[in-house]
Structures are given as structure tokens and as C-alpha cells.
Amino acid sequence: MFYRFLYITWRIFWGSTLVLLLTVTLFFGTIFLLLQTQPVREYLTDRAELWFNQNFQGTLEVGELGGLLPLNMEVREVSLSLDGDTLAMFESLNLSVDLISLLRNHLSIKDIALNRPVVHLEIGDSGRYTLADAFKRTTVDESDNLIPAKAIQTFDIFAPFVRVKDAFVTVASWSEGSDIGRMTGPLR
């Protein structure tokens, strides 16, 4: 009698475990497949643009999002501007995201590849490069904020490998005493 009870309990335990494992696998598989569809990619692109434009002084425009989300992203036709002046454009930007930190509600980028970036460096009214001013945080009124403040708690870029291919950099407002004039070789 005891062995029969133990046998039934053992079968119920493993049956429940397998059903739970199958349910979790189907759930995450469905989410992964949904991330590969075009409407979800357009939604994520719009949310990223909106988040950046609300939190920083610059304006970000993204043409298209590709890659195997959420592990690898290819962002095409990226443009960063400040007060109507385009500061940086990228043909494509390849990002590798740390999945473990993404599950903890942190976005951590561990590898970046920039393809054909065009960067315009100019010293603005503040005495800093306007590219730095584009990444300056703005104060946002919570009533106007369309994205919840706790959407992503932290955004870390840990990029031990940054690859730049076919870059074009324009430097305006060049001064003789600037550090950039002391470069010994070409930008690669």
C-alpha cells in the first residue's frame, strides 16, 4: 500500500514538473518569436526613440530594427540631432545585449559595431561639443512622460569591443590648442 502511494506521488510529481517545464518553454518561445515580427520591432523602435527624446536634449531617429532580438540587434539608419542640426548618422549599429542583465530589468550592451558613422563635432555655446550636449539629460515633467519611469532602471554600456568601419568625422570650430590636433595617426 505504501509503495503504491509512493509510486502515484512520484508519477504526479514528474508529470507536473514536465507540464510546468513545457508551459514555461512555450511561453518564452512565443515571446521570442513575437520579438522577431515586424510590428513588434516597429513598436520597440518607436518606444526607444520616444524614451531617448524625452530623457535627453538630442533627438534620435531610427530607421529600422533588425537582428535576432533580444540577443543581437541591428539598428539601421540611425540619426542623432540637436536643435535641427544632425550631429551623427550611422548606416547601421550592431549591438550585443547581455541577456542575464535584461532579465533583471537592466539594459547592458556588451559589444558595439558602428558601420559608416558620420560624426560632426562642433563646439556649441556652452563651450562643449554639441555631441555631448545631445546626451545631456533633461528634466521631464512626470505628467508629460509617456513612458513609465521604471521601464528600464539602468542603462549600462559595457563595450570591451567597439568596432568602427568606414568612419567620417568632421571637426568644426577647430582651435590650435585643442587636444584633437595632437593626434599622431588617422582615426580608425
What characteristics describe this protein?
alpha/beta; about 35% strand; elongated
Secondary-structure element series: HHEEEHEHEE
Uncertain segments are 181-188
Q: What about the largest sheet?
A: 6 strands, mixed
What is the overall pLDDT average?
A: 82
Shape: elongated
**Number of discrete helical segments:** 4
Number of strand segments: 6
Cα separation of the termini = 77 Å
Quickly give the structural class: alpha/beta
The fraction of residues in strands falls at 25-35%
Please give the radius of gyration in angstroms.
Answer: 24 Å
Q: What's the quaternary structure here?
A: single chain
Fraction of residues in helix: 25-40%
Account of the 3D structure:
By secondary structure, the chain is an alpha/beta fold. Strands 1, 2, 3, 4, 5 and 6 form a six-stranded mixed beta sheet that branches. It has helices spanning 2-35, 38-55, 99-103, 130-134; strands at 59-66, 72-82, 85-97, 106-121, 154-165, 168-171. The chain contains four helices and six strands, in the order H-H-E-E-E-H-E-H-E-E. The longest helix is centred in the first third of the chain and has 34 residues, at 2-35.
